[in-house]
Design brief:
The chain has about 180 residues and is an all-alpha fold. The chain has one domain: Four Helix Bundle (Hemerythrin (Met), subunit A). Helix 2 runs antiparallel to helix 3, helix 2 runs antiparallel to helix 5 and helix 4 packs antiparallel against helix 5. The C terminus is likely disordered. Bound molecules: protoporphyrin IX containing FE. The site of protoporphyrin IX containing FE has 28 residues, from helix 1, helix 2, helix 3, helix 4 and helix 5.
Length: about 180
């Protein structure tokens, strides 16, 4: 097997495009838990749980923006992947950005009225944002598991390795310096 090195590789155990998958569980967990708790609180008329749901949404939005920045870093540095995965990256970006903006809006309104039960409209926005987040994250998973994005290119078929890359030298350079 040829050992390849990549232009944007840090050469350590965590490459720049691997920060995003390490972080993305946090906003997904906070935001979906916030929406689920809020639905439960509304359904069982447990108003005292609503501020906790708001806190989860705020935590999700804050970690979401950090994750989105790491996503942009992954977008600019990720090595070999299929052309389809490349196209889907734009959908992933757009859907996740739309979801985060909706969550940010809902969290902001709820934060300002901390002790007041949220309106139906604000709750509905959270629900729509949760559906978008789930779809967008599934697309993110598809990019990795069906498109090879973020997988060490040495493990990919040569056709995928040469297909699409955000590395200027496409296939990477052998580590021994040979052409
Ligand atoms: C809160 C917002 C976001 C969430 C929750 C999210 C979630 C995910 C998930 C679940 C994956 C699959 C990775 C895995 O299986 O662990 C993924 C991959 C990916 N996402 Fe996102 N994403 C977000 C925003 C973004 C943004 C704004 C971009 C910019 C284009 C982006 C670019 C990528 C790329 C390039 C991959 C594939 C490979 C890699 O990370 O190395 N993501 N994302």
């Amino acid at each position: 097997m040829i050992a390849l090195t990549y232009r944007y590789s840090w050469g350590g155990p965590l490459e720049p495009w691997e920060i995003h998958p390490a972080l993305n569980h946090f906003p997904i967990a906070f935001l979906l838990a916030g929406v689920a708790l809020d639905l439960y609180a509304g359904w069982r008329a447990k108003a005292h749980l609503m501020p906790t749901a708001t806190g989860l949404l705020v935590a999700g939005v804050l970690t979401g923006w950090v994750t989105a920045l790491a996503g942009l870093l992954a977008f600019w540095t990720v090595p070999a992947h299929t052309g389809r995965a490349h196209d889907l990256m734009y959908w992933h970006l757009g859907i996740q950005a739309a979801s985060l903006l909706l969550f940010a809006w809902a969290a902001w309104v709820r934060w300002r009225g901390w002790s007041v039960p949220p309106s139906i409209a604000i709750r509905a926005i959270g629900l729509v944002a949760a559906v978008l987040l789930s779809v967008g994250s599934a697309v993110g998973g598809y990019i990795v598991y069906h498109g090879g994005a973020g997988v060490d290119p040495e493990l990919l078929a040569p056709a995928v390795r040469g297909s699409h890359s955000h590395q200027p030298d496409h296939e990477g350079m052998p580590m021994d310096g040979s052409p």
